[in-house]
Design brief:
Main location: membrane
Membrane topology: Multi-pass membrane protein
Helix content: over 70%
Organism: Prauserella marina
Distance between the termini: 13 Å
GO cellular component, one term: plasma membrane
GO molecular function: branched-chain amino acid transmembrane transporter activity
Order of helices and strands: HHHHHHHEHHHHHEHHHH
Strand content: under 5%
Length: 361
């Protein structure tokens, strides 16, 4: 009975959805954009800053979803690729600054070129060997900033000038919401607009021929090779797409935190991105979004609970990574397909029960 209550309106809505994949994805992005505007206008500047942080985590995570979830390649070096994008943005927004959209595009292109080199080197590696190679990337790249300290600022890094909201945009938002445009809110808008654009492109790509052949390579390499697919070229292409997303994420990160420094791109960042993809659900863009939300909102929520329970600030802060680790273990044990996999399983169980009841009648 409960399942029928859910499935009936869903089936009714499906009749009005566009028949093409592009149309459905555009509609989903439009709905998400309206939701983003409502959330950003109804929340505090602190939440705006958290949502800006979530946007660059999510951009990198959806790119990693293509590489790991769709093509089956493990990368522990996406933090280093984000560093490439961040430093490219910092250099282009320094003296004689270019417009920030040009800097973001350049960051994606430069990181995609780095992805070609890394992907070509990693295309013959599998499993732990590939993980080890990308781990070396994560460890080595931030050190380049210290070696070339004259250009990249050494340990202190490079300051980044954040873009300011254009007057027409601030006036339009004030007309709609009667709220002033703060710097944090504008950066959140910038990050989420970039994220939605990236998700639209990746959703179409995953539904295309490339998405199908990437899945074929992930599921059975031998069968894919016998079918005539060039595995090396497809692996490099997946790495390039994923690296371009990481470069964009690094560009947004640099503008949000106003700094590109080696301490922001440690191995912890790469591991956090991978855990976000696993917790959310491998191969799902929505899962990457959920995992990114956990990365941003779970630690402060646990810290607040800890201080409310009488722990000191240090003890409460140490509790957050412990709880995150417990959540990761529980999700892996209870839902190997991540949160999105669990939701899909529950949905199928509900619809199957509904069909069985209908057939019995």
């Amino acid at each position: 009975m409960g399942a029928r209550i859910i499935t009936k309106p869903v089936n009714a809505v499906r009749r009005f959805l566009p028949s093409s994949v592009l149309g459905r994805n555009l509609l989903a992005v439009l709905v998400a954009l309206i939701a983003v505007v409502l959330v950003l206008e109804l929340t505090t500047p602190f939440r705006n800053a958290q949502l800006a942080t979530m946007s660059y985590y999510a951009i990198a995570a959806v790119g990693l979803t293509v590489l790991t979830g769709l093509n089956g390649q493990i990368s522990l070096g996406h933090g280093a690729l984000m560093a490439v994008g961040a430093y490219t943005t910092a250099l282009l927004l320094g003296e004689d600054a270019v417009p920030f959209p040009v800097a973001m595009l350049a960051a994606a292109l430069v990181t995609a070129l780095a992805g070609v080199l890394v992907g070509a080197a990693a295309s013959r590696l599998h499993g732990p060997y590939l993980a080890g190679a990308t781990l070396a990337l994560a460890v080595g790249v931030p050190g380049l900033a210290i070696y070339f300290d004259g250009l990249l600022g050494g340990e202190q890094g490079l300051p980044v000038s954040s873009p300011r909201a254009p007057d027409w945009f601030a006036d339009a938002l004030y007309f709609l919401s009667a709220n002033d445009m703060s710097s944090a809110k504008y950066l959140a808008y910038l990050g989420w607009a970039t994220l939605l654009l990236v998700m639209l492109l990746l959703a179409n790509l995953m539904a295309s021929r490339f998405g199908r052949v990437w899945r074929a390579v992930r599921d059975d390499e031998v069968a894919a090779e016998l079918a005539g697919l060039r595995l090396g070229r497809l692996r490099v292409l997946a790495f390039v797409v994923s690296a371009a997303c990481a470069g964009l994420a690094g560009s947004v990160l640099a503008m949000v935190v106003r700094l590109a420094a080696p301490s922001g791109f440690t191995i912890v960042l790469s591991l956090s991105l991978l855990t976000a993809v696993v917790v959310g659900g491998l191969g799902s863009l929505g899962g990457a979004l959920l995992g990114s939300a956990l990365l941003v909102f779970l630690p402060p929520a646990v810290t607040n609970l800890g201080t409310s329970a009488g722990l000191t600030g240090v003890q409460a802060a140490q509790l957050a990574p412990f709880v995150y680790g417990v959540v990761l273990i529980v999700v892996i044990l209870v839902a190997p397909g991540g949160v999105m996999g669990l939701l899909r399983r529950l949905w199928r169980a509900g619809t199957t029960t509904s069909s069985d009841q209908g057939g019995t009648r």
